[in-house]
Design a protein that fits this description.
Blueprint (H helix, E strand, L loop, with lengths): L5 E4 L3 E3 L4 H4 L12 E5 L12 E8 L3 H12 L1 H7 L2 H16 L3 E3 L11 H6 L1 H8 L7 E3 L6 H10 L14 H4 L3 H5 L2 H6 L36
Helix pairs in contact: 2-4, 3-4
């Protein structure tokens, strides 16, 4: 960690407000004692017990305990490759290091805290999603976990009104978008690819959306109802 606290996140996360303000708030005494803090995964699978931590969003304080934790994770690279799950291995190490070395781990409760919602909330907890859409939530982020593929993640973000990247720049070679390296450093890529306004479109009426999408199909036939009723 080189002496720096670290906020790690996957790329399938949007910010509603800066989560660092939460972690850096010294007046929030409830979290000051913890060495590492995670979003809750939402899953009760035994391989993620007892913490059910989501390795796609967490904050780490730089100290000897966390340095040893991530050194151990590096040494477990072969296990990550074999299990095909960085999260599974990290959760196992959290269990080991908390019991043996006093690492203090915090996983924010998926139902009692609303600051860091994820795929569990997007797909199953529609009360939380309605609160986010109405601007009544305390959420700092939304993590599109629990989602089968990248294509659906993009579509879900679009109908949430949280997508700002132009279609013409997706899977397009950099040389086709801008002339050269100087254009990248001058912000040319941002100008060509990033929108100031959300790029919205409806796709599935049974998934959370900024506005009702009554003419869109269902993606989860077992649910058989619209997000907007």
């Amino acid at each position: 960690l080189l002496g720096h606290d670290v906020l790690f996140q996957d790329v399938d996360i949007v910010w509603f407000k800066d989560p660092l303000t939460f972690f850096h708030d010294k007046s929030n005494t409830a979290i000051q004692e913890f060495d590492i803090m995670f979003q809750h995964d939402g899953s009760a699978q035994s391989r993620y017990n007892p913490f059910s931590a989501n390795s796609g969003f967490y904050y780490v304080r730089a100290n000897k305990k966390t340095q040893y934790l991530f050194t151990s994770l590096l040494y477990h690279g072969a296990v990550v490759r074999k299990s095909k799950s960085h999260q599974q291995v990290l959760v196992q190490l959290l269990n080991e290091h908390s019991s043996m070395f006093g690492l203090k781990v915090k996983v924010f409760d998926k139902m009692q805290t609303d600051m860091f919602p994820g795929g569990f909330h997007y797909h199953q907890d529609w009360d939380t999603m309605h609160s986010i859409i109405k601007g009544e939530s305390n959420a700092y982020i939304l993590h599109m976990s629990w989602t089968e593929n990248k294509v659906n993640k993009l579509l879900f973000f679009r109908q949430m009104g949280e997508w700002y990247f132009s279609d013409k720049c997706i899977s397009n070679d950099l040389s086709n978008l801008i002339g050269g390296g100087d254009a990248v450093s001058d912000g040319g890529l941002v100008e060509k690819c990033c929108s100031q306004e959300p790029i919205f479109s409806c796709h599935f009426k049974d998934k959370p959306s900024k506005v009702p999408c009554p003419n869109s199909p269902l993606i989860d036939p077992h649910r058989a109802r619209s997000f907007w009723g």
